[in-house]
Amino acid sequence: MLELNDVTKRYGERLALDAVSFSVGDGRLTGFVGGNGAGKTTTMRIILGVLAADGGSVSLDGATLTAADRRRFGYMPEERGLYPKMKVLEQAVYLARLHGWAPAAARRNASELLDRLGLGERFDDTIESLSLGNQQRAQIAAALVHHPEVLVLDEPFSGLDPIAVETVQGVLADAAAGGVPVLFSSHQLDIVERLCDDLVIIAGGRIAASGARDALRAEHGSERWELLTDGDTGWLRERAGITVAEFDGGWAVFEAESDAARQAVLAEAVSRGEVVSFTREHTTLAQIFKEVVR
Amino acid sequence: MSTQSQQAAVAPTRPGEPSFLDSVSLIAGREITMRLRSKAFLVSTGILMLAVLASVVLGSLFGGQSDPAKVAVVGSAATAVEGNPALDPVPVDDEAAGEQLLRDGEVDAVISPAASDPLGITVIGLDQTPSSVVSALAVRPSVELLEPAAVDPGLAYLVAFGFGIVFFMSAITFGSTIAQSVVEEKQTRVVEILLSTVSARALLTGKVIGNSVLAFGQIIAIAALAIVGLLVTGQKVLLGGLGSSVIWFVVFFAIGFVMLAALFAASAAMVSRAEDMGSVTTPVTMLVMIPYFLVIFFFDNPAVLAIMSYVPFSAPVGMPVRIFLGQAEWWEPILSLAILIATTALAVAIGERIYRNTLLKTGSRVPLAEALRG
């Protein structure tokens, strides 16, 4: 488990990170979301030791991180970069070897991963000759080629087409299934919502919320209910303890004062024999995000 | 999940921590491979080689003995020319025959007897005084030197110039290569991945070693080419005198280059874009250029040369020149080398500090004070 404890970072007068604490469990895909300038990149750089924190600690399985631990991390920085004139395979092999892999094993890791990421045909092309999307895939390969024990990826999905997003999702899910803690940031909240097990929401350098995605959804989820019927739902307005929020013919969204009032609405709708669906309103990550950040 | 089990089947256990030396040799290896793949590097090396070869060949053409001048000799004038190594006499019957040869361009001058002349001969030229023939015939008093110069000054100049230009060219070429490679890593941000994998020290060491190996390889190739060229063109005398100074030059160069490489890398790390590189590497470039120009201007001034041979930045050029001129005592190159090694160690330490502190600072140029403080 990767843990951050009261990590603080100042840039001059500005407090960029204010006592940031959260954890990334083994085998958990953890989404890291926050607005621009909220501190995601700074946090990730501190985890990787590329930037020094002014206070607090980062630990792996209870022990403070050392440079040797970090060497077994996989990292995809916010600012993308590979050697433009190196060939795709050569570059991945080089990075695997820097992590200590023997030449043959490094080559095998690299070609398997690149194949899986859809770069099988581009082994001998230089990085600079690839399209941006393919450069992004090569960048992901660079982060994963040495079979890291911890993955930290800054915006791994930006610039990818939907098919590539799915491929990368698969690669990350497999890494997590192998027990690797995975922390990734993204602005594409729908992807985070679909993919992650846990969520960390950061705003203005502070952790606004963190925990399992489903628990967060339950906690910040809506108290509103959605009723869809064949007929008209106008009768809802007349009922005691019910406030209709939105209404359109056979469809209505309402809040109930009590569970009993809500149950009564369902019973009434059923007795009218016209219910298509009756559900708690779906809470999107975007809604949770807006709520906790506010 | 089939992919995952397949992955698990082929994934060997994670390797142990790579050693500092492993990292350095990988990084140095990459520097060398990428450089050897660059067309610009291969072409410029080829041009440098050609220039060296050309100067050796030209040296043999102009430096060697010129052929004796052909002269037509009329009658008794033959006695005046006899045994003169600079003249190749062609006996003719009379002046008219000699003049005909002169007009035809067969000979450079005609020498005929002249009773009125103190030497008893007249030199006839075509359109101007045939000075090589005249000076060959001139009467000179015998000359004795109390302190003969060990080395011909023209030759000394050539040697000084040669050491200077080789040092200058290599240092500038490979210094800017290192600077470029540092800025490239910053500009493309690959440095962030690298630094999460290897230490800044390993990165800098690998770069300096990789480029030093290249520079050194180039120097040795040039030296080999020059030596073979000198042997082939029969300039053995020059070679014998150069021997020990060339060896000292190679030793000084190897260490001096590491010093410059560390300084180039550190100064380049202070900027984030290739366009800004010139402004920060200029001071280091000056450190390379100054010895070059001092050697060219002051090669005949022993005092200046003596100082230069101890200043670390000019020692790789100054000391070998003094050794060649026979001005250095046996202990002098050793002392100078010790100073150079100490300065290099200091430069590498400062360079590493600047490099480590500035590598991740992107944007505008990092001020030197901040780079040193960290």
UniProtKB/TrEMBL annotation, chain A:
It is found in: Cell membrane. It comes from the Bacteria. PROSITE patterns: ABC_TRANSPORTER_1, ABC_TRANSPORTER_2. The keyword Cell cycle does not apply. The keyword ATP-binding applies. It holds the Pfam family ABC_tran. Residues 2-229 form the ABC transporter domain. InterPro entries: AAA+_ATPase, ABC_transporter-like_ATP-bd, ABC_transporter-like_CS, ABC_transporter_ATP-binding, DrrA1/2-like_C, P-loop_NTPase. It is a peripheral membrane protein. Keywords: Antibiotic resistance, ATP-binding, Nucleotide-binding, Transport. SUPFAM superfamilies: P-loop containing nucleoside triphosphate hydrolases. One of its GO terms (molecular function) is ATP binding. Belongs to the ABC transporter superfamily. This is ABC transporter ATP-binding protein. It comes from Agromyces lapidis. The lineage of its organism: Bacteria, Bacillati, Actinomycetota, Actinomycetes, Micrococcales.
TrEMBL record, chain B:
Keywords: Cell membrane, Membrane, Transmembrane, Transmembrane helix. The keyword Transmembrane applies. Residues 47-350 form the ABC-2 type transporter transmembrane domain. It comes from the Bacteria. InterPro entries: ABC-2_transporter_component, ABC2_TM. It is a multi-pass membrane protein. It is found in: Cell membrane. The keyword Membrane applies. Its main location: membrane. The chain crosses the membrane at residues 40-62, 155-179, 213-234, 246-272, 284-310, 330-351. This is ABC transporter permease. It comes from Agromyces lapidis. The lineage of its organism: Bacteria, Bacillati, Actinomycetota, Actinomycetes, Micrococcales.
